């Protein structure tokens, strides 16, 4: 399952970047991330491993997400390892001064026991709504803090 969700935020790129790389605070704006812990003391850059307690309806899991690449002020890429596997990526751009586009790409594979590609097809609209709502919450969080 592949998904792209984006939002334009009325804030400078530097402010949005600071929020994007503050992984400990992601549970404050991600509805599906109930809690986030770090697997080690490292909390930034490639090699950082997040253990994300994920909740979608009655479904609960721990998503192990390892940051694999950081391009400062542009993108953060990581790998999902757990029940669901795949890659997630935040991409930031500045379409005009004082405004930042935050794009969120996810490529997730469902395990065979959750229906594999059929499970992904069923889950896609649900996850897309959650991710769109997450970005709306991030937008509010940043714009109201200015």
User: Helix share of residues?
Assistant: 25-40%
* Widest β-sheet, arrangement of strands: 1-7-6-5-4-3-2
Spatial separation of the terminal alpha carbons: 35 Å
The chain-level mean pLDDT equals 95
Q: What is the strand content?
A: 35-45%
Number of strands: 7
Low-confidence stretches: none
Using only C-alpha atoms, the radius of gyration works out to: 15 Å
Question: Counting H and I runs of at least 4 residues, what is the number of helices?
Answer: 2
Basic shape:
globular
Question: Major beta sheet, specifics?
Answer: 7 strands, antiparallel
Which secondary-structure class do the elements indicate? alpha+beta
Walkthrough of the structure:
This protein has helices at 13-20, 116-145; strands at 2-9, 33-38, 49-56, 59-71, 75-81, 85-96, 99-109. The relative contact order is 0.24. It is globular. A seven-stranded antiparallel sheet has the order 1-7-6-5-4-3-2, covered by helices on one side. The chain contains two helices and seven strands, in the order βαββββββα. The chain has 146 residues and is α+β, with helices and mostly antiparallel strands.
Characteristic key phrases:
single chain, 146 residues, alpha+beta, seven-stranded antiparallel β-sheet, 45% strand
């Amino acid at each position: 399952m592949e998904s792209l969700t984006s939002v334009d935020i009325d804030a400078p790129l530097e402010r949005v970047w600071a929020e994007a790389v503050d992984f400990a605070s992601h549970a404050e704006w991600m509805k599906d991330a109930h809690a986030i812990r770090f697997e080690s003391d490292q909390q930034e850059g490639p090699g950082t491993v997040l253990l994300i307690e994920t909740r979608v309806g009655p479904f609960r899991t721990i998503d192990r997400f390892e940051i694999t690449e950081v391009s400062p002020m542009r993108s953060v890429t990581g790998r999902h390892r757990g029940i669901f596997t795949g890659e997630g990526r935040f991409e930031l751009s500045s379409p005009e001064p004082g405004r930042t586009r935050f794009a969120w790409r996810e490529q997730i594979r469902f395990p065979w026991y959750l229906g594999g590609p059929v499970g992904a097809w069923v889950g896609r609209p649900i996850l897309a709504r959650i991710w769109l709502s997450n970005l709306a919450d991030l937008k509010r969080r940043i714009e109201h803090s200015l």
